[in-house]
């Protein structure tokens, strides 16, 4: 086989990888090109001939960057059978635009000196909902994965090569742009606000993997609201008060109220965020925010939340919600209760809880939205006597959300802990036949207020997590059945999450046929 064709295979693999991680979304009218003035080393140690059973490429990505164009550099080994026959080093591919016109220039990406906002000319403005542009998607991607100073300016050059607060990336980056920013960095006694936008894809992965394709998962709704709070926290410069410390950013608590349930496919969600307070004590910073989501001028979700900056030692010394005491799940304290255990990895329970011909949408979500290996149900159990569910999941350090949340600081998003609770509630509803009054039931959003409190995180090193929920009531009417519960989540045996008034709704599918 010609060496040039083997090299072309390497290039195609890098192109595939670049498309897979979404670099094509950062440019318009672009083509794959080699990286100019980047020397490669190629060492040939054999041939690929017709008698070889299989040719394999092993790719190790060494570098991902965005300037001057999105690019990837990798080392690649080509194997014939089990033997390396070609060894490529420093193979680089970039996505360069065919024209020199860009929505935001490189110099404009160096934003946010102290007290400054970015003012872009109308000519260079990226398409928004009629507002100015403060940060585009590429700048936010720098915040998530690249050089943070390219998003927030030279004040943050001190964090080059250091751990720093990041926005979620990849499948969990849920900000498209920041359109307004008011307030001066480090002036915490004056108002500080921003307006951000998120362009909801028509066929986002979280729609396709949810039980009904019109349902936006509650975890995604939370992340759209909270990620812009993180952006405002960074811009505020609170972390700059401790330039010598590596501080880690964590959500501590909050609440959100769903006011309406608009159709969001292909729409732009606007988030108005205000920094309400900033308090420093020792080497800890606590900030509170309010948020308000709207679409087409209609407010549909609002609330407030608290975030904190902590040194690593403080996070490692966390004692959870019970002062370090071990408070086991209710099922362990009441072992004689009659219960039903569901193994979600078995084909039998996948038939019961998964998609079936009778109830296509009255089922558990799949793929990235599946968070339990085992669920135990106790009808009429729990502290309220209305029903109880317990769930267990073995934590996989390779779970999809760890590299997304966050770069160089992997933790499970708290919002996905709430999603795991919702999944357990849905399993309870399905198995107990709560939706049997409907001809074709489906899970649907409920207009209500949910509160959460976090005092710890699920880490890649965590062996397992467990949760339980106590059904408070089940309210039925002609149009909807609503289950309300309080819930807890444990990192192994340490209780770290507490969720109040989390809800699951069940409605007739035909009511939503227009979606």
Report on this model:
This protein starts with a helix and ends in a 7-residue tail after the last strand. It has three domains: 3-97, Thiol Ester Dehydrase, Chain A (Roll); 106-316, Hotdog Thioesterase (Thiol Ester Dehydrase, Chain A, Roll); 320-512, Thiol Ester Dehydrase, Chain A (Roll), CATH 3.10.129.10. β3 (55-65) and β4 form a beta hairpin. It contains eleven helices and 19 strands. With 515 residues, the protein is an alpha+beta fold. The radius of gyration is 25 Å and the shape is globular.
The CATH topology of the largest domain corresponds to: Thiol Ester Dehydrase, Chain A
CATH class of the largest domain: Alpha Beta
Taken from the alpha-carbon principal axes, the silhouette is: globular
Largest sheet: 14 strands, antiparallel
Order of SSEs: HEEEEEHHHEEHHEEEEHHEHEEHHEEEEE
Number of separate helices: 11
Task: Tell me how many strands there are.
Answer: 19
Given as residue ranges, the uncertain stretches (5+ residues, pLDDT < 50) are 99-130, 511-515
Helix content: 10-25%
What number of domains? 3
Whole-number radius of gyration?
25 Å
- What class would the helix/strand composition place it in? alpha+beta
By CATH, the superfamily of the largest domain comes out as Hotdog Thioesterase
Distance between the termini: 52 Å
CATH architecture title of the largest domain: Roll
Strand content: 25-35%
């Amino acid at each position: 086989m010609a060496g040039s064709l083997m090299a072309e295979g390497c290039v195609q693999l890098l192109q595939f990888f670049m498309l897979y991680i979404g670099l094509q979304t950062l440019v318009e009218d672009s083509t794959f090109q080699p990286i100019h003035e980047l020397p490669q080393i190629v060492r040939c140690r054999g041939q690929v001939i017709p008698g070889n059973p299989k040719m394999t490429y092993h790719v190790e990505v060494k570098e991902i960057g965005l300037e001057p164009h999105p690019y990837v550099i990798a080392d690649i080994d080509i194997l014939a059978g089990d033997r390396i026959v070609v060894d490529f080093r420093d193979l680089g591919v970039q996505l360069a635009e065919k024209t020199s016109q860009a929505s935001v220039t490189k110099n404009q990406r160096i934003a946010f000196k102290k007290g400054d906002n970015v003012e872009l000319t109308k000519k260079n403005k990226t398409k928004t909902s009629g507002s100015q542009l403060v940060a585009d998607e590429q700048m936010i991607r720098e915040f998530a994965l690249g050089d943070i100073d390219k998003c927030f300016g030279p004040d943050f050059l001190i964090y080059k090569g250091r751990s720093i607060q990041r926005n979620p990336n990849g499948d969990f980056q849920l900000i498209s742009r920041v359109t307004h920013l008011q307030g001066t960095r480090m002036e915490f006694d004056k108002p500080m606000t921003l307006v951000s936008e998120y362009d909801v894809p028509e066929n986002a992965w979280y729609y396709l993997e949810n039980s009904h394709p019109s349902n936006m998962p509650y975890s995604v709704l939370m992340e759209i609201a909270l990620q812009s709070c993180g952006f405002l926290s960074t811009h505020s410069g609170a972390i700059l008060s401790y330039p010598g410390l590596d501080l880690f950013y964590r959500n501590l608590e909050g609440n959100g109220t769903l006011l309406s349930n608009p159709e969001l496919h292909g729409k732009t969600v606007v988030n108005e965020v205000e920094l309400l307070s900033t308090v420093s004590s020792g080497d800890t910073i606590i900030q509170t925010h309010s948020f308000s989501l709207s679409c087409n001028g209609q407010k549909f979700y609002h609330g407030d939340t608290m975030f904190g900056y902590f040194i690593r030692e403080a996070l490692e010394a966390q004692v959870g919600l019970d002062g370090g005491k071990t408070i086991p799940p209710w099922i362990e304290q009441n072992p004689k209760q009659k219960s039903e255990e569901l193994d979600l990895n078995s084909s039998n329970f996948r038939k019961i809880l998964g998609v079936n011909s009778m109830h296509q949408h009255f089922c558990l979500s799949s793929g990235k939205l599946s968070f339990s290996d085992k669920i135990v149900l106790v009808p009429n159990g729990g502290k309220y006597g209305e029903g109880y569910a317990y769930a267990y999941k073995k934590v996989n350090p390779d779970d999809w959300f760890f590299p997304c949340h966050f770069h160089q600081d992997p933790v499970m998003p708290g919002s996905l802990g709430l999603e795991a609770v919702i999944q357990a509630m849905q399993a309870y509803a399905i198995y107990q036949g709560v939706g049997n009054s409907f001809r074709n039931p489906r899970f649907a959003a409920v207009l209500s207020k949910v509160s959460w409190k976090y005092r710890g995180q699920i880490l890649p090193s965590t062996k397992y997590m467990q949760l339980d929920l106590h059904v408070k009531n089940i309210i039925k009417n002609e149009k909807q059945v609503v289950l309300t519960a309080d819930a807890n989540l444990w990192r192994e045996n340490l209780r770290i999450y507490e969720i109040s008034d989390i809800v699951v709704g069940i409605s007739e599918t035909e009511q939503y046929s227009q979606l």
